Each structure stands twice: as structure tokens, then as C-alpha cells.
Amino acid sequence: MKKKIGHLVMWVEFGVLTILLARFCAVRIGENVEGIRGFLVQKQENTESISKKIEKEAASDKVIGVSDGRDGRTEDTPEDTSEDTMEGGCQEKKKVALTFDDGPSSKYTPLLLEGLKERGVHATFFLMGKNIEGKEVLVKQMQEEGHLIGNHTYNHVQLDKISKEAAKEEIEATNQEIYEITGVYPAWLRPPYGEWRKNLDFYVGMFPVLWDVDTLDWKSKNVDSIMRIVKNEVEDGAVILMHDAYQSSVDAALQIVDLLMKEGYKFVTVDKLILP
Ligand SMILES: [Zn+2]
After folding, report:
1. Hey, which residues are catalytic here?
2. Is residue 75 part of a domain?
3. Cα-to-centroid distance, 151 and ligand 1 (Å)
4. Ligand 1 center to 190 CA (angstroms)
5. pLDDT tens for residues 122-175?
6. Given this model, what pLDDT does residue 275 score?
């Protein structure tokens, strides 16, 4: 009898232990399930935040100007919506790029931006780093209104006359100034005096942009002279060099736009000329 009771106690103890063990396991499994669920929720949140980030970046891509087609156009920026085709055929419109060096200028850049906006035209501005301070609003305006912003070195240095390290510093300091305002590192660079050091593009990771039509606007400061040069030299695909540093340049630039638009030209930023 005692033996039977002993066995019974043993079985009861075994049963209790089994129940305890089962409950313990259930709790642990539950914890694991909770843990996995938490992990999955976190993962989903991460995925959501990543996709939100991508969406945000995609949206901001619409207002930045770089070489891969992101030319900085905003939804509300007026632009030439006319067809790229000539009447009665599939021939593309002639393209031309207006470029302005040495800015921004607190006096003349706003006038130029206003005139370009009225005409729904985008230009390319190659900024000097040292001219940016105090004119951040203008740089932001250029970006918001769909213009392309490029680099013209910090101090207007001749890049083949200094070491490649010094050239890199000049270029990167300017890129940094522009980046802090626009959130975009420029990809395009206008070398002062048109002088470029061999292979510097690989060293600094930027594309040099020269010109086809030199208006000599800084020299003549004369609208008629500038217009004469443009009329003589402009052709499909031309890059026109100007400076938003003089009233005569602003006046001439807007006249050039009016004239060439009548002649069937479409004004584009330089990235659109080089990478159609
Ligand atoms: Zn210059």
C-alpha cells in the first residue's frame, strides 16, 4: 500500500513537473512569438521609413539640378511646354544654353532671374564660392525656379596654374557652399578662363563645361555688341557665355531669349545639351 502511495506521489510530482515545464515552455514560446512579432513590426516600420525616405528623396529630386535628368524643375515653375518637334515633321527643336559666370550678384542676378522666369526659360549659373555668402536666398531661388547650378571655383583661380590638390580645395569649398543651401553637390564646373588641368575631372568627379559663343559681355558692357556676336555665332547646341554682373548683360540676355525663341530655339540647362 505504502509502495502504491509512493508511486502515486511520484506520478503526481511527475505530473506537476510536466505541467510546470509545459507552462514554462508556453511562456517562452509566447515570448519568442512576441519577440518575432516585435521584430517584424520593427522591420515593417523600418521598411516604411525607408520607403518614406525614398519618396521624400524622389520628391526632392524634382528640385535639384544634376546631370541625370534632374534639372531642378519644380511643379509650379513655368517652362516651355511646347512640342519638341518642328511643324509638320519630327525634327527636334534647336537647343541653346545660356550660362552665367562669376555670380551671384545681389544687384543683377535678381533682375535676370525675374526676366527668365517671365519667359519660362532655364539657364545655368556657375557660381563663385566667395560670392555666395549673404546671397543664399538667390541660390535657393535659382534652384527652385529650375536653373542648373554649377561651380566656378571659390576664388576664380586658373586651375592649370595651381596644384591639383589646391584645385580640388577650390572646387570642393564651392561645392560645399552650394550643397549647404540646395542639398545638392553640383556636377558641372566652368573653369575660369576656360583653362582646365588634364584629368582633373577624374580627380574631382566633375564635368568641365566650356562654351561656343563668347559674348565678351564683361568687356564691351554693350547690348548691341553682345547681340551682334550671338546672332553671328549661335547654332543648334551652342553654349553661350555671359556674366550676371552687369546691367547690359541682363538686358542682352533677355533680348537673346526673345530673339532666339522666335527663331525656334529652346533654352535648356547645359546638362540637357550634353546628356539629352
Ligand atoms: Zn569667371
Report:
1. 101, 243
2. no
3. 10
4. 8
5. 999 999 999 999 999 999 999 999 999 999 999 999 999 999 999 999 999 999
6. 74
Would residue 81 count as lying in a domain? no
146 and 250 part of one domain: yes
**What is the distance in A from the centroid of ligand 1 to the CA of 192?**
5
**Domain assignment of residue 80, yes or no:** no
Classify residue 151 by burial, with Cβ atoms within 10 Å: 0-12, 13-18, 19+.
buried
**Same domain for 33 and 109?**
no
Residue stretches of the chain with pLDDT short of 70: 1-91, 276
Q: Which three-class secondary structure string do you get for the chain?
A: CHHHHHHHHHHHHHHHHHHHHHHHHHHHHHHHHHHHHHHHHHHHHHHHHHHHHHHHHHHHHHHCECCCCCECCCCCCCCCCCCCECCCCCCECEEEEEEEEEECCCCCHHHHHHHHHHHCCCCEEEECHHHCCCCHHHHHHHHHCCCEEEECCCCCCCHHHCCHHHHHHHHHHHHHHHHHHHCCCCCEECCHHHCCCCCHHHHHCCEECCCCEECCHHHHCCHHHHHHHHHHHCCCCEEEEEECCCHHHHHHHHHHHHHHHHCCEEECCHHHHHCC
